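Ops channel
N.P.: pipeline sanity check, posting one input/output pair.
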């Protein structure tokens, strides 16, 4: 009797297990961040009319900063985004104790992202997913390659839970983590992403994160403007990556305090913005929705762009556990909005297409920095929930990707992983 081939079936079974576990954990993670951020915004509204609440916020943020510093001191592996670390786990470059990393990243990132400082939940969700999948893989197999495959499923399911984008999450694993196509990896990742996305959808609903009702089919006769937009976005993406990598390599500290307490800086700076300009708080996803639904002046958009760039870079430089992917999308959206409004003011573009330009700017900017064009296109398509702008997205993405590549951009998370490993090996050498 012919022996049955069960590799693909096992990949699907593993994907289901990972999707259920990671979907539950990261959905709870997302829910707690949303609730904490909602509470923080309510307190800021109270502080705007009663200054006594400012002292409450200040004391709370100091306590949050001390807790984050303590968690980082106990587990330095949770610093920063979590995506390069997860990539290092999967490729075998780095090794982490899965349970310790999971719960430290879970609590630390809720405090960081939920407090309203300028970081996102997506990177932490990926590291949480990879760590949970690593724990499951230890129970399921002794084969290192199969364990890495299961951790890839954890990455996909963690990202899918945050963005409700299972296809893009699978592509991210193949294009941005493995950088190779494997049927077993893709099956595991896709299955786990679908299951995790189902759990997330039950909790948060089926409406896409950036659902837009007023998107129109972008006209072919205006594609010349998209060439200009693609070039601008590509150049901006290049400078953003270079600055981000330099900031990420900085090791500074508040005088008299260990470097882990750097997170106190954005936690204190966020207070006046929370009172006077709450639209820019947090990961920035609310800001993207606002600028696509309401027209802001060019001056306001430029102000938001400068503040979001400076404050997100500052937050990232503290090595606090929080993501940079959503903040990147926000900056891309604001650049798109700025370009779109200039086109409109010059009489080159019909105002009904401004939302299209914002979305296109978002995907082109992310692709130029991450060097993952396929993931970028599908991610934003799933997050927006419509395919009618796909051609324009792809057109700008290719241009922005090529411009940034010619200027010297590499895959951001690969370079950040190298920074982490270099720092890790230097610390070992010193010991």
């Amino acid at each position: 009797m012919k022996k049955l081939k069960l590799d693909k079936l096992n990949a699907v079974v593993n994907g289901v297990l990972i999707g259920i576990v990671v979907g539950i954990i990261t959905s709870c993670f997302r829910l707690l961040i949303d609730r904490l951020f909602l509470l923080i915004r309510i307190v800021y509204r109270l502080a705007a009319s009663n200054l006594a609440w400012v002292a409450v916020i200040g004391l709370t943020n100091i306590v949050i900063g001390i807790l984050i510093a303590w968690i980082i001191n106990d587990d330095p592996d949770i610093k920063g985004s979590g995506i390069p670390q997860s990539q290092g786990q999967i490729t075998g470059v780095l090794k982490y104790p899965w349970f310790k990393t999971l719960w430290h990243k879970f609590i630390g990132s809720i405090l960081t992202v939920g407090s309203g400082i300028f970081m996102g939940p997506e990177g932490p969700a990926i590291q949480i997913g990879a760590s949970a999948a690593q724990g499951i893989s230890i129970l399921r197999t002794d084969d290192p390659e199969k364990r890495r495959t299961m951790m890839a499923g954890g990455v996909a399911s963690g990202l899918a839970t945050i963005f409700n984008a299972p296809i893009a999450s699978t592509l991210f694993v193949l294009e941005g983590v493995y950088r190779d196509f494997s049927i077993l990896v893709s099956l595991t990742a896709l299955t786990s992403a679908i299951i995790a996305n189902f759990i997330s959808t039950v909790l948060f609903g089926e409406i896409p994160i950036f659902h837009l009702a007023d998107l129109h089919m972008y006209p072919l006769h205006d594609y010349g403007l998209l060439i200009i937009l693609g070039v601008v976005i590509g150049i901006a993406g290049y400078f953003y990556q270079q600055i981000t990598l330099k900031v990420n390599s900085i090791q500074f500290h508040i005088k008299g305090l260990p470097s882990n307490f750097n997170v106190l800086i954005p936690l204190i700076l966020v207070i006046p913005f929370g009172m006077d300009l709450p639209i820019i708080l947090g990961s920035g996803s609310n800001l993207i929705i606002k600028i696509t639904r309401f027209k802001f002046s060019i001056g306001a958009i430029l102000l938001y762009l400068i503040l979001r760039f400076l404050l997100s870079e500052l937050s990232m430089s503290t090595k606090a556990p929080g993501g940079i992917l959503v903040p990147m999308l926000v900056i891309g959206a604001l650049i798109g909005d700025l370009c779109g409004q200039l086109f409109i003011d010059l009489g080159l573009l019909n105002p009904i297409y401004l939302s299209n330009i914002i979305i296109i700017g978002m995907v082109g900017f992310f692709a130029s920095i991450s060097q993952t064009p396929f993931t970028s296109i599908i991610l934003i398509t799933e997050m927006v929930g419509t395919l009618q702008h796909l051609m324009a997205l792809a057109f700008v993405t290719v241009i922005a990707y090529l411009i940034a590549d010619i200027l010297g951009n590499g895959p951001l998370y690969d370079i950040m992983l190298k920074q982490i490993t270099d720092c890790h090996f230097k610390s070992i050498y010193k010991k």
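N.P.: looks fine end to end. The chain has a mean pLDDT of 89.
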